[in-house]
Design goal:
The protein has 125 residues and is mainly alpha-helical. Helices cover 46% and strands 10% of the residues. Strand 2 (87-90) and strand 3 form a beta hairpin.
Length: 125
């Protein structure tokens, strides 16, 4: 007879498996955590371009808000397209940078895993 495992136990094993192949575990508890992590990871992923264009590998609040407007409130199909394409970000200093969200070169991407996250903006605390 097969051993019965809880959903939580299966999730833990899955996360451990992903960590064993290079995913970094990150604690994300709510929508704000996800947005904050997205900001950090997107800047890290595009660090070379950002440093070249503005001298620092981060986004001002206004710059990041422009990114969020570009990616937010899309259908699944539209989101897939947005994430495949480059985004032309107008920087506060008047320059532009072509941001990438991920690469088809899988070695270049940043991989993370977390437990279940509450993403409903209407239920944020």
């Amino acid at each position: 007879m097969a051993k019965v495992q809880s959903e939580y136990d299966v999730e833990i094993k899955f996360i451990e498996r992903l960590e064993s192949i290079g995913y970094a575990y990150i604690e994300l508890n709510n929508y704000e955590d996800v947005i904050s992590n997205f900001r950090v990871q997107l800047a890290a992923y595009n660090a070379e371009k950002l440093i070249e264009a503005k001298g620092t590998a981060d986004f001002s609040d206004a710059e990041f808000n422009r990114v969020l407007i570009h990616v937010d409130n899309k259908s699944v199909y539209e989101s897939a397209k947005v994430l495949r394409d480059k985004y032309i970000l107008n920087l506060d200093n008047g320059k532009t940078v072509y941001l990438e969200f991920f690469s088809f070169n899988t070695d270049r991407n940043i991989y993370q895993v977390s437990h279940q996250i509450t993403m409903d903006k209407d239920h944020m605390k």
